[in-house]
Amino acid sequence: MFLHIGGDVVIPIKDIIAIFDLEKTTISKDTREFLKTAEEEGFVESISYDIPKSFILTENDKNSKIYLSPISSTTLQKRSNFIYKLSNYKKKQK
């Protein structure tokens, strides 16, 4: 299953490590430094020209990537829960 995180970008749910609220988490100096370092090393991808509201930490084949999304972390969490429930429902139907 995939999660639409904004723009034309969808990512496999299995690759998601965490979804963070950008405003709340960047209060911490450590988080700001983490994002700055990740951007300098090319791990950050901004998926929209809109102001980012969240960032999604992913890993695929031991390669980490951070997506900056214009969609709130709450909305992304709701979407992922819906997809998870739908997936489990389909499994029960088989």
Brief summary of the model shown:
This protein is an alpha+beta fold. The protein has one domain. The chain is 39% helix and 34% strand.
Q: What Rg do the Cα atoms give?
A: 14 Å
How much strand content do the residues show? Answer: 25-35%
The DSSP helix count reads: 3
The low-pLDDT segments are none
Write structural notes for this entry.
It contains 3 helices and 6 strands, in the order βββααβββα. It has helices at residues 22-25, 29-40, 73-93, and strands spanning 2-6, 9-12, 16-21, 44-46, 54-60, 63-69. Helix content is 39%, strand content 34%. The model has no long low-confidence stretch (mean pLDDT 91). It is elongated and about 45 Å long. The strands form 2 sheets. Strands 3-5-6-4 form a 4-stranded mixed β-sheet. The protein has a two-stranded antiparallel ribbon with strand order 1-2. The longest helix has 21 residues, at 73-93. The chain has one domain (2-76). It has 94 residues and is of the alpha+beta class.
